Protein backbone atom coordinates (compact mmCIF):
# COMPACT_ATOMS: atom_id res chain seq x y z
CA UNK A 1 0.00 0.00 0.00
CA UNK A 2 1.19 3.46 -0.84
CA UNK A 3 1.47 5.56 2.36
CA UNK A 4 0.25 8.66 0.54
CA UNK A 5 -2.91 6.95 -0.65
CA UNK A 6 -5.71 7.06 1.92
CA UNK A 7 -8.34 5.17 -0.01
CA UNK A 8 -7.74 2.64 -2.78
CA UNK A 9 -10.78 1.68 -4.78
CA UNK A 10 -10.41 -1.37 -6.99
CA UNK A 11 -12.92 -2.55 -9.60
CA UNK A 12 -15.85 -1.23 -7.66
CA UNK A 13 -19.18 -2.25 -9.14
CA UNK A 14 -22.33 -1.08 -7.43
CA UNK A 15 -25.80 -2.32 -8.23
CA UNK A 16 -28.96 -0.81 -6.90
CA UNK A 17 -31.62 -3.33 -7.74
CA UNK A 18 -31.01 -4.13 -11.39
CA UNK A 19 -29.32 -0.83 -12.12
CA UNK A 20 -25.56 -0.84 -12.37
CA UNK A 21 -24.74 2.48 -10.69
CA UNK A 22 -20.94 2.13 -10.78
CA UNK A 23 -18.90 0.25 -13.36
CA UNK A 24 -15.47 -1.03 -12.43
CA UNK A 25 -14.28 2.11 -10.71
CA UNK A 26 -10.59 2.03 -9.82
CA UNK A 27 -9.12 5.11 -8.22
CA UNK A 28 -6.59 6.13 -5.58
CA UNK A 29 -7.57 8.91 -3.21
CA UNK A 30 -4.41 10.68 -2.02
CA UNK A 31 -4.11 11.47 1.69
CA UNK A 32 -4.38 15.07 2.92
CA UNK A 33 -5.69 16.57 -0.29
CA UNK A 34 -9.00 17.34 -1.90
CA UNK A 35 -10.38 15.06 -4.59
CA UNK A 36 -13.14 16.76 -6.55
CA UNK A 37 -15.73 14.55 -8.22
CA UNK A 38 -17.68 16.00 -11.10
CA UNK A 39 -20.19 14.54 -13.51
CA UNK A 40 -23.77 15.03 -14.68
CA UNK A 41 -26.79 13.89 -12.71
CA UNK A 42 -27.01 10.12 -12.56
CA UNK A 43 -23.30 9.60 -13.19
CA UNK A 44 -22.77 7.77 -9.90
CA UNK A 45 -20.93 10.50 -7.96
CA UNK A 46 -23.13 10.31 -4.89
CA UNK A 47 -23.42 6.53 -4.96
CA UNK A 48 -19.61 6.40 -5.06
CA UNK A 49 -19.33 8.83 -2.14
CA UNK A 50 -21.89 7.01 -0.02
CA UNK A 51 -20.12 3.70 -0.64
CA UNK A 52 -16.98 5.09 1.00
CA UNK A 53 -18.60 5.18 4.44
CA UNK A 54 -21.11 2.40 3.87
CA UNK A 55 -24.09 4.75 3.84
CA UNK A 56 -25.54 2.82 0.92
CA UNK A 57 -25.99 -0.25 3.10
CA UNK A 58 -29.49 0.87 3.92
CA UNK A 59 -30.45 1.48 0.29
CA UNK A 60 -32.83 -1.21 -0.86
CA UNK A 61 -31.27 -3.53 -3.41
CA UNK A 62 -27.73 -2.24 -2.84
CA UNK A 63 -24.94 -4.62 -3.78
CA UNK A 64 -21.24 -3.86 -4.23
CA UNK A 65 -18.37 -5.89 -5.59
CA UNK A 66 -14.74 -4.93 -5.72
CA UNK A 67 -12.60 -3.49 -2.97
CA UNK A 68 -12.50 -0.20 -1.09
CA UNK A 69 -9.35 -0.09 1.03
CA UNK A 70 -9.19 2.52 3.78
CA UNK A 71 -5.55 2.55 4.90
CA UNK A 72 -5.25 -0.88 3.36
CA UNK A 73 -8.26 -2.49 5.10
CA UNK A 74 -11.30 -3.39 2.98
CA UNK A 75 -14.35 -1.55 4.30
CA UNK A 76 -16.67 -3.71 2.18
CA UNK A 77 -15.37 -6.91 3.73
CA UNK A 78 -17.87 -8.92 5.76
CA UNK A 79 -17.45 -8.08 9.44
CA UNK A 80 -16.00 -4.63 8.83
CA UNK A 81 -16.71 -2.29 11.74
CA UNK A 82 -19.25 0.03 10.11
CA UNK A 83 -19.60 2.38 13.10
CA UNK A 84 -15.81 2.65 13.31
CA UNK A 85 -15.64 3.37 9.57
CA UNK A 86 -18.22 6.14 9.86
CA UNK A 87 -16.26 7.70 12.73
CA UNK A 88 -13.18 7.78 10.53
CA UNK A 89 -15.07 8.86 7.42
CA UNK A 90 -17.34 11.83 8.15
CA UNK A 91 -19.90 13.21 5.76
CA UNK A 92 -21.49 16.56 4.96
CA UNK A 93 -24.68 16.64 2.90
CA UNK A 94 -26.11 19.08 0.40
CA UNK A 95 -28.69 20.42 2.79
CA UNK A 96 -27.47 21.41 6.24
CA UNK A 97 -29.10 19.24 8.89
CA UNK A 98 -28.58 21.01 12.20
CA UNK A 99 -30.04 19.19 15.16
CA UNK A 100 -32.83 21.14 16.90
CA UNK A 101 -30.65 22.13 19.84
CA UNK A 102 -28.06 24.79 20.69
CA UNK A 103 -24.98 25.47 18.61
CA UNK A 104 -22.83 24.08 21.41
CA UNK A 105 -24.87 20.90 21.76
CA UNK A 106 -24.82 20.32 18.01
CA UNK A 107 -21.04 20.17 17.96
CA UNK A 108 -20.78 18.34 21.28
CA UNK A 109 -23.40 15.76 20.22
CA UNK A 110 -20.99 13.29 18.63
CA UNK A 111 -18.26 13.44 21.29
CA UNK A 112 -20.91 13.05 24.03
CA UNK A 113 -22.32 10.03 22.22
CA UNK A 114 -18.81 8.64 22.04
CA UNK A 115 -18.50 8.97 25.80
CA UNK A 116 -16.81 12.32 26.42
CA UNK A 117 -18.30 13.75 29.59
CA UNK A 118 -15.85 16.43 30.75
CA UNK A 119 -17.40 19.84 30.21
CA UNK A 120 -13.93 21.34 29.74
CA UNK A 121 -12.95 18.82 27.07
CA UNK A 122 -16.25 19.33 25.29
CA UNK A 123 -15.74 23.11 25.35
CA UNK A 124 -12.29 22.65 23.81
CA UNK A 125 -13.65 20.35 21.13
CA UNK A 126 -16.52 22.74 20.31
CA UNK A 127 -14.20 25.74 20.08
CA UNK A 128 -11.55 24.06 17.95
CA UNK A 129 -14.16 22.48 15.65
CA UNK A 130 -16.02 25.76 15.14
CA UNK A 131 -12.71 27.51 14.48
CA UNK A 132 -11.68 24.89 11.93
CA UNK A 133 -15.07 25.30 10.23
CA UNK A 134 -14.54 29.09 10.06
CA UNK A 135 -17.64 29.70 12.21
CA UNK A 136 -16.23 30.48 15.66
CA UNK A 137 -15.97 34.26 15.27
CA UNK A 138 -19.60 34.52 14.21
CA UNK A 139 -21.11 32.40 17.00
CA UNK A 140 -18.70 32.46 19.95
CA UNK A 141 -20.95 34.83 21.93
CA UNK A 142 -24.14 32.86 21.38
CA UNK A 143 -23.20 29.21 21.67
CA UNK A 144 -26.37 28.50 23.61
CA UNK A 145 -28.78 29.85 21.02
CA UNK A 146 -30.62 27.44 18.79
CA UNK A 147 -28.75 26.26 15.73
CA UNK A 148 -31.93 26.79 13.74
CA UNK A 149 -31.48 30.55 14.04
CA UNK A 150 -28.28 30.45 11.99
CA UNK A 151 -28.28 31.31 8.29
CA UNK A 152 -28.04 28.49 5.73
CA UNK A 153 -24.33 29.06 5.21
CA UNK A 154 -23.69 29.14 8.95
CA UNK A 155 -25.75 25.99 9.44
CA UNK A 156 -23.65 24.21 6.84
CA UNK A 157 -20.45 25.27 8.59
CA UNK A 158 -21.98 24.11 11.88
CA UNK A 159 -22.54 20.70 10.31
CA UNK A 160 -18.92 20.75 9.15
CA UNK A 161 -17.86 21.55 12.74
CA UNK A 162 -19.99 18.63 13.92
CA UNK A 163 -18.14 16.35 11.51
CA UNK A 164 -14.76 17.72 12.64
CA UNK A 165 -15.63 17.24 16.32
CA UNK A 166 -15.37 13.48 15.78
CA UNK A 167 -11.84 13.93 14.44
CA UNK A 168 -12.40 11.92 11.29
CA UNK A 169 -9.61 11.06 8.87
CA UNK A 170 -11.68 11.43 5.73
CA UNK A 171 -14.41 14.00 5.04
CA UNK A 172 -16.96 13.32 2.33
CA UNK A 173 -18.86 16.32 1.02
CA UNK A 174 -21.90 15.86 -1.17
CA UNK A 175 -22.53 19.19 -2.92
CA UNK A 176 -22.04 21.09 0.33
CA UNK A 177 -22.61 24.51 -1.24
CA UNK A 178 -25.51 23.75 -3.55
CA UNK A 179 -27.93 25.90 -1.54
CA UNK A 180 -25.51 28.59 -0.46
CA UNK A 181 -24.87 32.15 -1.63
CA UNK A 182 -21.41 33.04 -3.06
CA UNK A 183 -20.09 34.46 0.24
CA UNK A 184 -21.13 31.41 2.25
CA UNK A 185 -19.71 29.21 -0.49
CA UNK A 186 -16.41 31.08 -0.26
CA UNK A 187 -16.35 30.50 3.54
CA UNK A 188 -16.80 26.74 3.09
CA UNK A 189 -14.13 26.70 0.38
CA UNK A 190 -11.74 28.63 2.65
CA UNK A 191 -12.34 26.09 5.39
CA UNK A 192 -11.66 23.21 2.96
CA UNK A 193 -8.41 24.80 1.82
CA UNK A 194 -7.23 24.84 5.46
CA UNK A 195 -8.59 21.41 6.33
CA UNK A 196 -6.84 19.59 3.51
CA UNK A 197 -3.56 19.86 5.41
CA UNK A 198 -4.99 17.45 8.00
CA UNK A 199 -7.79 15.54 6.32
CA UNK A 200 -8.45 13.58 3.18
CA UNK A 201 -11.37 15.32 1.54
CA UNK A 202 -13.63 14.10 -1.24
CA UNK A 203 -15.90 16.75 -2.67
CA UNK A 204 -18.77 15.87 -4.98
CA UNK A 205 -19.94 18.97 -6.76
CA UNK A 206 -22.22 19.92 -9.61
CA UNK A 207 -20.35 23.18 -9.85
CA UNK A 208 -17.30 22.39 -11.99
CA UNK A 209 -15.85 25.83 -11.20
CA UNK A 210 -15.86 24.87 -7.52
CA UNK A 211 -13.84 21.74 -8.27
CA UNK A 212 -11.47 23.90 -10.33
CA UNK A 213 -11.06 26.30 -7.41
CA UNK A 214 -10.53 23.92 -4.51
CA UNK A 215 -9.72 20.38 -5.65
CA UNK A 216 -6.14 19.14 -5.93
CA UNK A 217 -7.25 16.28 -8.17
CA UNK A 218 -10.47 15.96 -10.07
CA UNK A 219 -12.32 12.85 -11.20
CA UNK A 220 -14.97 12.86 -13.91
CA UNK A 221 -17.77 10.30 -13.69
CA UNK A 222 -20.19 9.53 -16.48
CA UNK A 223 -22.92 6.89 -16.42
CA UNK A 224 -21.31 5.04 -13.54
CA UNK A 225 -17.90 5.02 -15.12
CA UNK A 226 -14.80 6.89 -13.97
CA UNK A 227 -13.84 8.52 -17.27
CA UNK A 228 -10.76 10.36 -16.14
CA UNK A 229 -8.94 11.43 -13.00
CA UNK A 230 -5.92 13.69 -12.75
CA UNK A 231 -4.51 16.93 -11.39
CA UNK A 232 -7.27 19.54 -11.47
CA UNK A 233 -5.23 21.85 -13.69
CA UNK A 234 -4.90 19.09 -16.27
CA UNK A 235 -8.62 18.27 -16.21
CA UNK A 236 -9.52 21.92 -16.75
CA UNK A 237 -6.79 22.85 -19.25
CA UNK A 238 -6.16 19.78 -21.35
CA UNK A 239 -8.23 16.77 -20.34
CA UNK A 240 -7.29 13.51 -22.06
CA UNK A 241 -10.80 12.30 -22.79
CA UNK A 242 -13.04 14.27 -25.16
CA UNK A 243 -16.04 13.48 -22.92
CA UNK A 244 -14.31 15.23 -20.02
CA UNK A 245 -13.61 18.21 -22.26
CA UNK A 246 -17.23 18.40 -23.38
CA UNK A 247 -18.49 18.21 -19.81
CA UNK A 248 -16.16 20.84 -18.30
CA UNK A 249 -16.80 23.30 -21.11
CA UNK A 250 -20.52 22.79 -20.50
CA UNK A 251 -21.51 21.03 -23.71
CA UNK A 252 -23.66 18.62 -21.72
CA UNK A 253 -24.61 17.84 -18.16
CA UNK B 1 -20.74 25.47 -23.54
CA UNK B 2 -23.22 28.24 -22.93
CA UNK B 3 -24.85 29.88 -25.92
CA UNK B 4 -23.34 33.20 -24.83
CA UNK B 5 -19.80 31.86 -24.74
CA UNK B 6 -20.29 30.08 -28.05
CA UNK B 7 -21.47 33.33 -29.62
CA UNK B 8 -18.46 35.24 -28.25
CA UNK B 9 -16.05 32.57 -29.48
CA UNK B 10 -17.65 32.59 -32.93
CA UNK B 11 -17.18 36.33 -33.13
CA UNK B 12 -13.58 36.05 -31.94
CA UNK B 13 -12.96 33.39 -34.59
CA UNK B 14 -14.27 35.70 -37.31
CA UNK B 15 -12.15 38.60 -36.04
CA UNK B 16 -8.89 36.66 -35.84
CA UNK B 17 -9.48 35.16 -39.30
CA UNK B 18 -10.11 38.61 -40.75
CA UNK B 19 -6.91 39.86 -39.15
CA UNK B 20 -4.94 36.91 -40.48
CA UNK B 21 -6.29 37.43 -44.00
CA UNK B 22 -5.34 41.12 -43.87
CA UNK B 23 -1.85 40.35 -42.62
CA UNK B 24 -1.35 37.68 -45.27
CA UNK B 25 -2.34 40.23 -47.93
CA UNK B 26 0.08 42.76 -46.49
CA UNK B 27 3.02 40.38 -46.64
CA UNK B 28 2.17 39.53 -50.26
CA UNK B 29 1.81 43.20 -51.19
CA UNK B 30 5.04 44.20 -49.44
CA UNK B 31 7.02 41.51 -51.24
CA UNK B 32 5.48 42.50 -54.58
CA UNK B 33 6.23 46.17 -53.92
CA UNK B 34 9.92 45.30 -53.47
CA UNK B 35 10.02 42.99 -56.50
CA UNK B 36 8.28 45.45 -58.82
CA UNK B 37 9.73 48.60 -57.24
CA UNK B 38 6.12 49.66 -56.84
CA UNK B 39 6.08 52.78 -54.62
CA UNK B 40 2.28 53.10 -54.57
CA UNK B 41 1.84 49.54 -53.35
CA UNK B 42 4.55 50.02 -50.72
CA UNK B 43 2.80 53.15 -49.48
CA UNK B 44 -0.48 51.28 -49.30
CA UNK B 45 1.09 48.61 -47.04
CA UNK B 46 2.65 51.28 -44.82
CA UNK B 47 -0.63 53.14 -44.48
CA UNK B 48 -2.47 50.03 -43.38
CA UNK B 49 -0.36 49.54 -40.26
CA UNK B 50 -2.73 51.54 -38.03
CA UNK B 51 -5.66 49.41 -39.15
CA UNK B 52 -3.84 46.17 -38.31
CA UNK B 53 -2.86 47.59 -34.92
CA UNK B 54 -6.45 48.52 -34.15
CA UNK B 55 -7.65 45.03 -35.12
CA UNK B 56 -5.03 43.49 -32.84
CA UNK B 57 -6.24 45.59 -29.91
CA UNK B 58 -9.86 44.63 -30.64
CA UNK B 59 -9.05 40.91 -30.67
CA UNK B 60 -7.11 41.21 -27.41
CA UNK B 61 -9.99 43.05 -25.75
CA UNK B 62 -12.40 40.34 -26.95
CA UNK B 63 -10.18 37.67 -25.41
CA UNK B 64 -9.91 39.51 -22.10
CA UNK B 65 -13.66 39.99 -22.02
CA UNK B 66 -14.30 36.29 -22.61
CA UNK B 67 -11.78 35.30 -19.92
CA UNK B 68 -13.30 37.70 -17.39
CA UNK B 69 -16.96 37.00 -18.09
CA UNK B 70 -17.03 33.33 -19.01
CA UNK B 71 -13.93 31.83 -17.39
CA UNK B 72 -13.60 29.21 -20.11
CA UNK B 73 -11.86 25.90 -19.45
CA UNK B 74 -10.30 23.03 -21.40
CA UNK B 75 -10.53 23.37 -25.21
CA UNK B 76 -12.26 26.76 -24.92
CA UNK B 77 -9.55 28.09 -22.62
CA UNK B 78 -6.81 26.82 -24.90
CA UNK B 79 -8.53 28.45 -27.86
CA UNK B 80 -8.62 31.86 -26.17
CA UNK B 81 -5.00 31.60 -25.06
CA UNK B 82 -3.90 30.49 -28.53
CA UNK B 83 -5.80 33.38 -30.13
CA UNK B 84 -4.20 35.86 -27.70
CA UNK B 85 -0.75 34.67 -28.74
CA UNK B 86 -1.47 34.27 -32.45
CA UNK B 87 -2.95 37.77 -32.42
CA UNK B 88 0.37 39.16 -31.24
CA UNK B 89 2.30 37.24 -33.86
CA UNK B 90 -0.02 38.50 -36.59
CA UNK B 91 0.46 42.09 -35.50
CA UNK B 92 4.24 41.62 -35.56
CA UNK B 93 4.01 40.11 -39.05
CA UNK B 94 2.02 43.19 -40.05
CA UNK B 95 4.83 45.40 -38.71
CA UNK B 96 7.40 43.36 -40.62
CA UNK B 97 5.43 43.82 -43.86
CA UNK B 98 5.58 47.56 -43.26
CA UNK B 99 9.34 47.35 -42.70
CA UNK B 100 9.76 45.38 -45.92
CA UNK B 101 7.66 47.95 -47.81
CA UNK B 102 9.83 50.74 -46.36
CA UNK B 103 13.02 48.95 -47.48
CA UNK B 104 11.38 48.63 -50.90
CA UNK B 105 10.82 52.37 -51.09
CA UNK B 106 14.41 53.03 -50.07
CA UNK B 107 15.78 50.56 -52.64
CA UNK B 108 13.95 52.37 -55.45
CA UNK B 109 16.33 55.32 -55.10
CA UNK B 110 19.41 53.10 -55.30
CA UNK B 111 21.08 51.54 -58.36
CA UNK B 112 20.22 47.88 -59.07
CA UNK B 113 22.60 45.45 -57.40
CA UNK B 114 22.75 42.82 -60.12
CA UNK B 115 23.55 39.99 -57.70
CA UNK B 116 21.31 36.88 -57.74
CA UNK B 117 20.14 36.74 -54.14
CA UNK B 118 17.54 34.07 -53.28
CA UNK B 119 15.29 36.76 -51.83
CA UNK B 120 12.33 35.92 -54.12
CA UNK B 121 12.51 32.24 -53.22
CA UNK B 122 12.77 33.12 -49.54
CA UNK B 123 9.72 35.40 -49.80
CA UNK B 124 7.76 32.60 -51.52
CA UNK B 125 8.68 30.11 -48.82
CA UNK B 126 7.87 32.50 -45.96
CA UNK B 127 4.51 33.34 -47.53
CA UNK B 128 3.80 29.66 -48.11
CA UNK B 129 4.53 28.97 -44.42
CA UNK B 130 2.24 31.76 -43.35
CA UNK B 131 -0.56 30.61 -45.64
CA UNK B 132 -0.18 27.02 -44.56
CA UNK B 133 -0.25 27.81 -40.85
CA UNK B 134 -3.26 30.10 -41.18
CA UNK B 135 -5.11 27.43 -43.18
CA UNK B 136 -4.09 24.92 -40.51
CA UNK B 137 -5.50 27.26 -37.87
CA UNK B 138 -8.86 27.32 -39.64
CA UNK B 139 -9.01 23.53 -39.97
CA UNK B 140 -7.19 22.85 -36.65
CA UNK B 141 -4.70 20.69 -38.52
CA UNK B 142 -1.77 20.09 -36.20
CA UNK B 143 0.04 17.87 -38.72
CA UNK B 144 0.27 20.84 -41.12
CA UNK B 145 1.44 22.99 -38.21
CA UNK B 146 4.29 20.56 -37.61
CA UNK B 147 5.32 20.85 -41.29
CA UNK B 148 5.43 24.63 -40.87
CA UNK B 149 7.74 24.26 -37.88
CA UNK B 150 10.01 22.03 -39.94
CA UNK B 151 10.04 24.45 -42.90
CA UNK B 152 11.52 27.22 -40.77
CA UNK B 153 14.95 25.58 -41.08
CA UNK B 154 15.03 26.24 -44.83
CA UNK B 155 14.26 29.93 -44.33
CA UNK B 156 16.99 30.20 -41.74
CA UNK B 157 19.44 28.57 -44.15
CA UNK B 158 18.60 31.03 -46.95
CA UNK B 159 18.86 33.95 -44.54
CA UNK B 160 22.32 32.77 -43.53
CA UNK B 161 23.31 32.33 -47.17
CA UNK B 162 22.17 35.88 -48.01
CA UNK B 163 24.04 37.25 -45.03
CA UNK B 164 27.23 35.57 -46.22
CA UNK B 165 26.66 36.79 -49.78
CA UNK B 166 26.11 40.36 -48.55
CA UNK B 167 29.22 40.27 -46.39
CA UNK B 168 31.29 39.08 -49.35
CA UNK B 169 29.74 41.58 -51.78
CA UNK B 170 30.31 44.52 -49.45
CA UNK B 171 34.05 43.91 -49.39
CA UNK B 172 34.18 43.38 -53.15
CA UNK B 173 31.99 46.32 -54.02
CA UNK B 174 31.73 48.91 -51.22
CA UNK B 175 29.73 51.26 -53.48
CA UNK B 176 26.76 48.91 -53.13
CA UNK B 177 26.86 49.12 -49.35
CA UNK B 178 23.51 50.91 -48.98
CA UNK B 179 21.63 48.59 -51.32
CA UNK B 180 23.15 45.51 -49.75
CA UNK B 181 22.07 46.71 -46.33
CA UNK B 182 18.50 46.92 -47.58
CA UNK B 183 18.70 43.40 -49.02
CA UNK B 184 20.06 42.09 -45.74
CA UNK B 185 17.33 43.84 -43.86
CA UNK B 186 14.55 42.44 -46.06
CA UNK B 187 16.02 38.97 -45.70
CA UNK B 188 15.98 39.33 -41.95
CA UNK B 189 12.39 40.58 -41.94
CA UNK B 190 11.31 37.57 -44.02
CA UNK B 191 13.15 35.29 -41.65
CA UNK B 192 11.30 36.88 -38.72
CA UNK B 193 7.97 36.43 -40.52
CA UNK B 194 8.77 32.74 -40.84
CA UNK B 195 9.61 32.67 -37.11
CA UNK B 196 6.25 34.20 -36.27
CA UNK B 197 4.55 31.64 -38.55
CA UNK B 198 6.37 28.97 -36.56
CA UNK B 199 5.15 30.53 -33.30
CA UNK B 200 1.60 30.34 -34.62
CA UNK B 201 2.16 26.70 -35.58
CA UNK B 202 3.36 25.93 -32.04
CA UNK B 203 0.36 27.68 -30.53
CA UNK B 204 -1.88 25.70 -32.84
CA UNK B 205 -0.32 22.43 -31.68
CA UNK B 206 -0.98 23.56 -28.10
CA UNK B 207 -4.55 24.42 -28.97
CA UNK B 208 -5.23 21.01 -30.51
CA UNK B 209 -3.14 18.73 -28.31
CA UNK B 210 -2.87 20.69 -25.07
CA UNK B 211 0.90 20.23 -25.04
CA UNK B 212 3.44 23.04 -25.13
CA UNK B 213 5.97 22.00 -27.78
CA UNK B 214 8.02 25.19 -27.78
CA UNK B 215 11.72 24.64 -27.07
CA UNK B 216 11.39 20.90 -27.58
CA UNK B 217 13.23 18.73 -30.07
CA UNK B 218 9.84 17.83 -31.51
CA UNK B 219 9.64 21.06 -33.52
CA UNK B 220 12.45 23.11 -35.01
CA UNK B 221 13.69 25.38 -32.28
CA UNK B 222 14.04 28.98 -33.34
CA UNK B 223 16.60 29.61 -30.64
CA UNK B 224 18.89 27.09 -32.29
CA UNK B 225 18.19 27.71 -35.94
CA UNK B 226 17.34 31.36 -35.90
CA UNK B 227 19.70 32.96 -33.44
CA UNK B 228 20.36 36.47 -34.67
CA UNK B 229 23.98 36.67 -33.57
CA UNK B 230 24.72 33.27 -35.05
CA UNK B 231 24.31 34.43 -38.58
CA UNK B 232 22.67 37.68 -39.39
CA UNK B 233 23.27 40.65 -37.15
CA UNK B 234 20.74 43.38 -37.92
CA UNK B 235 22.34 46.26 -39.80
CA UNK B 236 22.70 49.25 -37.55
CA UNK B 237 20.37 52.17 -38.15
CA UNK B 238 17.68 50.07 -39.77
CA UNK B 239 14.38 49.29 -38.15
CA UNK B 240 14.33 46.04 -36.32
CA UNK B 241 11.84 43.39 -37.34
Describe, in short, the structure shown.
The complex is a heterodimer of chains A (253) and B (241). With 253 residues, chain A is an alpha/beta fold.
At the first level of CATH, what is the class of chain B? Mainly Alpha
What fraction strand of chain A?
25-35%
Q: What integer value in Å does the Rg of chain B equal?
A: 19 Å
Task: Extract low-pLDDT stretches of chain B.
Answer: 223-241
Estimate percent helicity of chain A. Answer: 25-40%
CATH class annotation of chain A: Alpha Beta
Total strands of chain A: the figure is 10
CATH homologous superfamily descriptor of chain A: P-loop containing nucleotide triphosphate hydrolases
Largest interface: which pair? A-B, 14 and 14 residues
Overall structural domain count of chain A: 1
The total count of helices of chain B amounts to 9
The CATH architecture category of chain A equals: 3-Layer(aba) Sandwich
Structure write-up:
Chain A is of the alpha/beta class and 253 residues long. Chain A has a single domain, classed as Rossmann fold (3-Layer(aba) Sandwich), CATH 3.40.50. Chain A contains 10 helices and 10 strands. A 6-stranded mixed sheet of chain A has the order 6-7-8-3-9-10, sandwiched between helices. In chain A, helix 3 (103-113) crosses helix 4 (119-132). The longest helix of chain A is centred in the middle third of the chain and has 14 residues, at 119-132. Chain A is globular. The two termini of chain A are 35 Å apart. In chain A, 45% of the residues are buried. The mean pLDDT of chain A is 95. By secondary structure, chain B is an all-alpha fold. Chain B has a single domain, classed as Phosphate transport system protein phou homolog 2, domain 2 (Methane Monooxygenase Hydroxylase, Chain G, domain 1), CATH 1.20.58.220. Helix content of chain B is 80%, strand content 0%. Chain B has 9 helices and no strands. Chain B has helices at 3-35, 39-47, 49-70, 74-108, 119-139, 142-172, 177-209, 222-225, 228-231. The longest helix of chain B is centred in the middle third of the chain and has 35 residues, at 74-108. Mean pLDDT of chain B is 88; it is low at 223-241. Classes of the chains: A alpha/beta (253), B mainly alpha (241). At the A-B interface, helix 8, helix 9 and helix 10 of A face helix 4 of B.
Amino acid sequence: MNADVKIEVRNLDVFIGNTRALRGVTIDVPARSILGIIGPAGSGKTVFLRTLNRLNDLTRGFRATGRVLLDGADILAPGADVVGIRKRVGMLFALPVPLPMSIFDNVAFGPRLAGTRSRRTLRQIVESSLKAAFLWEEVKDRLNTSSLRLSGGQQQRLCLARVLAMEPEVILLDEPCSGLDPVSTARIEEALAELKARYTIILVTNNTKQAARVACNTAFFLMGELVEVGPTSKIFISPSDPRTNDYVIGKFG
Amino acid sequence: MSVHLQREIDKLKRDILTLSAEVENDVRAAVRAVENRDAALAERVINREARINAMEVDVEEECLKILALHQPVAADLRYIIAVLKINQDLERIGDLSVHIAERGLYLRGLPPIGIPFRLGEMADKAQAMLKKVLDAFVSLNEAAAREVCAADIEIDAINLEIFQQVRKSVTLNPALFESLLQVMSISRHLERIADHATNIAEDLIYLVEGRIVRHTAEVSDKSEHGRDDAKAPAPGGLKEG
